[in-house]
Design brief:
The protein is α+β, with helices and mostly antiparallel strands and 196 residues long. The protein has 3 domains: 6-52, Ubiquitin-associated (UBA) domain (Helicase, Ruva Protein, domain 3, Orthogonal Bundle); 59-109 and 152-191, Tetrahydropterin Synthase, Chain A; 115-149. The protein is 51% helix and 17% strand. It contains 8 helices and 5 strands; from the N terminus they run H-H-H-E-E-H-H-H-H-E-E-H-E. It has helices at 6-16, 20-29, 34-52, 82-85, 88-104, 116-128, 137-149, 167-178; strands at 59-67, 71-79, 158-159, 162-166, 183-191. A 3-stranded antiparallel beta sheet has the order 1-2-5. A hairpin with a 2-residue loop joins strand 3 and strand 4 (162-166). Helix 2 (20-29) crosses helix 3 (34-52). The longest helix has 19 residues, at 34-52. The model has no long low-confidence stretch (mean pLDDT 85).
Length: 196
């Protein structure tokens, strides 16, 4: 068995947001392989985050980001308790989401927020331009719909500070660290000279 140092345990604890005991256990199970242990901890944390997704979020904060006085965004990010809402990690998360909104100009928080008339109009347009096998039509149109709204839905956008993950994955990692459900309730983006 590989030698596991206290520094490795502390580093894993810090990166995963788990306790010392869990960090040590993960390193032992990974036979001292730090990267393998970290990956196992992340998967475990994300699984827990999925389970927390239904819990009610009534606390949180409103944060904003202004870029060069020319464009800005204001967001409402919610969590379960005021204790978590007051932490530096949560404040940073809300600010980074405001930066995301200012930078990437999404129209909707999630796919569920796309109005039915907008969705229906897009489907109609895609069906009119459909060129492909009829037996695959439904699946192809579904993929085209997802692609058409990918950059317009905040949760589906690549996260601006790490494009290897989506905003949704970034938030799930925060859920895993805080132990609370976190949701983006609403946002507004304003750009100088541009009206909706």
């Amino acid at each position: 068995m590989a030698e596991i140092s206290v520094e490795q345990i502390k580093k894993l604890k810090e990166l995963s947001g788990a306790g010392l005991t869990d960090a040590k256990k993960a390193l032992v199970e990974a036979d001292g392989d730090f990267d393998k242990a970290l990956e196992a901890m992340r998967k475990k944390g994300l699984t827990k985050a999925e389970k927390r997704g239904d819990r009610e979020t009534r606390e949180g904060l409103v944060d904003s980001y202004i870029h060069d006085g020319r464009l800005g965004a204001i967001v409402e990010v919610n969590c379960e308790t005021s204790f978590v809402a007051k932490t530096d990690e949560f404040k940073t998360l809300a600010h980074q989401i405001a930066m995301q909104v200012a930078s990437m100009a999404p129209l909707y928080v999630s796919e569920e927020d796309i109005p039915e008339e907008v969705r229906a109009a897009k489907i109609k347009e895609l069906e009119a331009n459909f060129k492909g096998p009829e037996n695959m039509k439904e699946k192809i149109l579904e993929g085209q719909m997802k692609k058409a709204f990918a950059d317009k839905v905040l949760m589906n956008q690549p996260y601006i500070l790490d494009d290897s993950k989506t905003v949704e994955q970034f938030i799930k990692e925060a859920i895993a660290k805080t132990g609370e459900n976190i949701t983006v309730r609403q946002f507004k983006r304003i750009e100088l000279g541009v009206t909706e």
